[in-house]
């Protein structure tokens, strides 16, 4: 078999709608949200946001952005915030594209994102203001280009006053009206995705891509099936959004798909395990979208025994592999939940595969069954196509595939090939289930976040005591992987530390601090620093990273760190 594809019928995907139009219109072929079911609930306060408020706030804010900043089609607005009910109501992607940003970014990282995406405005949570202001200054954005999600220090505009401003004035903007087919290329999101070259790349995601993946998941999970217990996502159920909305999993699956199904999205700003449990019980959460470190806590923390989680009916694990033993253990913690894994990436605008709708537990080791409408092929090392059960790199195509990397022709040509997206993951496909064997790319995944070794290596080499470096990922029970740096100290450093173990340790700590002072937390060298005589390389000078990954596997048992 040359390609793999399920035979589930995929409903029509509109290509002339923006995401807000698609999400806010009552359309045939989708679940009907009862009028008493809110769109969002704010975790800390219990505040409910109804359909009417969503429509009013997004339209009013879009009007204000048009009036004050002339934001329009083709512009990009950067959103920097923890999960917040105001973020999905920000209104800018009624007019323009959005580039979600990690609220933990430092100034240098945010500057890179602003320059890469050419963002016109920054919408920031007050706790991100200092970073946003510093980055704006570097890239030449004025103070008036920063909008706070809520009232804060200084004379910055804030969303609440802008909603009132926009609502009180005649409509200045013209909502985007797409022609048939135009949605396939109309920019919705510029989401950053790390790569083996070090710096993150801006993935161009269209309105059609997001709408397509939502409809694909709807077909996969039988959202319109009237049979009792057949639909896993009935309107009125409550999905907890504890995954970051700036990450593609939290953005598309946890938020947009849940809303499409008529569910309520419980918006949790930050993961705290005990508060997480409290909220599941307080709001009678039915659907959990998690990552393996969170599931590990569910299985191993004694406090869980104090909570009745029997009302949870669905638990999806994504962003990193979930082991069979953890799946078995969490099935005891969530006795009435369907539990399994999903697989996707930013470049595929999320879900490529997910566990089947009628399963109590997904297949052990499987990342799930292919989405309706997604075509996959497995390419072996010699370029030939693998048969069912044979290993090779996963290539996929379908309506949700993103368009390209913004202003990066070289990386685009490597990943996007004749309509196919090369995932860089080595897989086996059997019975349309995807089994991830290994990551062919050098990228690491720490708590589901992509970390490029080359980015860390470039920074570590700036340290005067480092002559050469190679960063590899090592297994970590809590985080999935964490970075470990193999360092060749400089000649001067070697003379200074000699054979003194204390000086060796001090230099290792200094290098770790060099990284932690400059990088977001999940990029820290939680795997440690090891000194080595030389970094193994091939004749052309390319690092033989596999050699050191194997050395790390042999020298170290899986660790459990808490980044």
UniProtKB/TrEMBL annotation:
<feature type="domain" description="AMP-dependent synthetase/ligase">
    <location>
        <begin position="36"/>
        <end position="406"/>
    </location>
</feature>
<protein>
    <submittedName>
        <fullName>Uncharacterized protein</fullName>
    </submittedName>
</protein>
<dbReference type="InterPro" id="IPR042099">
    <property type="entry name" value="ANL_N_sf"/>
</dbReference>
<dbReference type="Pfam" id="PF00501">
    <property type="entry name" value="AMP-binding"/>
</dbReference>
<dbReference type="InterPro" id="IPR000873">
    <property type="entry name" value="AMP-dep_synth/lig_dom"/>
</dbReference>
<dbReference type="InterPro" id="IPR045851">
    <property type="entry name" value="AMP-bd_C_sf"/>
</dbReference>
<dbReference type="Pfam" id="PF13193">
    <property type="entry name" value="AMP-binding_C"/>
</dbReference>
<dbReference type="InterPro" id="IPR020845">
    <property type="entry name" value="AMP-binding_CS"/>
</dbReference>
<feature type="domain" description="AMP-binding enzyme C-terminal">
    <location>
        <begin position="455"/>
        <end position="542"/>
    </location>
</feature>
<dbReference type="InterPro" id="IPR025110">
    <property type="entry name" value="AMP-bd_C"/>
</dbReference>
<dbReference type="GO" id="GO:0016405">
    <property type="term" value="F:CoA-ligase activity"/>
</dbReference>
């Amino acid at each position: 078999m040359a390609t793999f594809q399920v035979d589930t019928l995929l409903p029509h995907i509109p290509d002339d709608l923006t995401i807000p139009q698609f999400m806010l219109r009552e359309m045939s072929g989708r679940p009907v949200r009862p009028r008493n079911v809110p769109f969002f609930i704010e975790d800390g306060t219990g505040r409910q946001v109804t359909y009417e408020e969503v429509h009013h706030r997004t339209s009013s804010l879009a009007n204000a952005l048009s009036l004050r900043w002339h934001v329009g089609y083709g512009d990009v607005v950067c959103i920097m915030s923890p999960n917040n009910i105001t973020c999905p109501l920000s209104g800018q992607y009624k007019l323009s594209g959005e580039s979600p940003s990690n609220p933990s970014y430092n100034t240098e990282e945010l500057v890179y994102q602003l320059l890469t995406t050419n963002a016109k405005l920054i919408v920031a949570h007050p706790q991100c203001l200092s970073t946003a202001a510093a980055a704006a200054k570097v890239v030449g954005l004025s103070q008036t280009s920063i909008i706070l999600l809520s009232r804060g220090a200084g004379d910055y505009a804030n969303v609440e006053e802008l909603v009132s401003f926009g609502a009180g004035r005649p409509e200045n903007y013209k909502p985007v009206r797409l022609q048939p087919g135009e949605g396939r290329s109309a920019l919705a999101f510029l989401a950053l995705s790390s790569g083996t070259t070090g710096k993150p790349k801006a993935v161009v995601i269209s309105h059609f891509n997001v709408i397509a993946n939502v409809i694909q998941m709807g077909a996969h999970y039988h959202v319109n099936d009237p049979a009792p217990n057949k639909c896993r996502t009935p309107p009125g159920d409550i999905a907890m959004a504890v995954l970051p909305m700036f990450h593609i999993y939290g953005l598309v699956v946890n938020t947009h798909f849940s809303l499409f199904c008529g569910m309520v999205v419980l918006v949790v700003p930050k993961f705290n395990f005990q508060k997480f449990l409290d909220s599941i019980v307080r709001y009678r959460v039915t659907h959990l979208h998690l990552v393996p470190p969170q599931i590990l806590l569910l299985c191993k923390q004694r406090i869980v025994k104090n909570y009745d989680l029997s009302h949870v009916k669905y638990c999806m694990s994504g962003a990193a592999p979930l082991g069979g033993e953890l799946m078995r253990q969490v099935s005891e913690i969530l006795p009435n939940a369907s539990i399994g894994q999903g697989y996707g990436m930013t470049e595929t605008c999320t879900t490529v595969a997910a566990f089947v709708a009628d399963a109590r537990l997904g297949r052990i080791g499987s990342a799930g069954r292919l989405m309706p409408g997604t075509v996959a092929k497995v390419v072996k090392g010699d370029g030939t196509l693998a048969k069912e059960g044979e290993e090779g790199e996963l290539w996929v195509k379908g309506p949700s595939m993103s368009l390209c990397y913004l202003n990066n022709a070289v990386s685009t040509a490597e990943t996007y090939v004749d309509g196919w997206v090369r995932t860089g993951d080595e897989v086996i496909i059997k019975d349309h289930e995807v089994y991830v064997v290994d990551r062919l790319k050098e990228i690491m995944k720490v708590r589901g976040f992509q970390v490029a070794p080359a980015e860390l290596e470039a920074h570590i080499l700036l340290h005067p005591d480092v002559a050469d470096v190679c960063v590899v990922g090592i297994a970590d029970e809590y985080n999935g992987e964490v970075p470990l740096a193999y360092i060749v100290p400089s000649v001067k450093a070697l003379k200074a530390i000699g054979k003194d173990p204390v000086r060796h340790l001090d230099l290792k700590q200094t290098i770790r601090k060099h990284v932690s002072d400059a990088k977001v937390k999940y990029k820290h060298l939680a795997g440690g620093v090891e000194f080595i005589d030389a970094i193994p390389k091939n004749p052309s000078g390319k690092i033989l990273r596999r050699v050191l990954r194997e050395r790390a596997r042999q020298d170290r048992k899986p660790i459990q760190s808490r980044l």
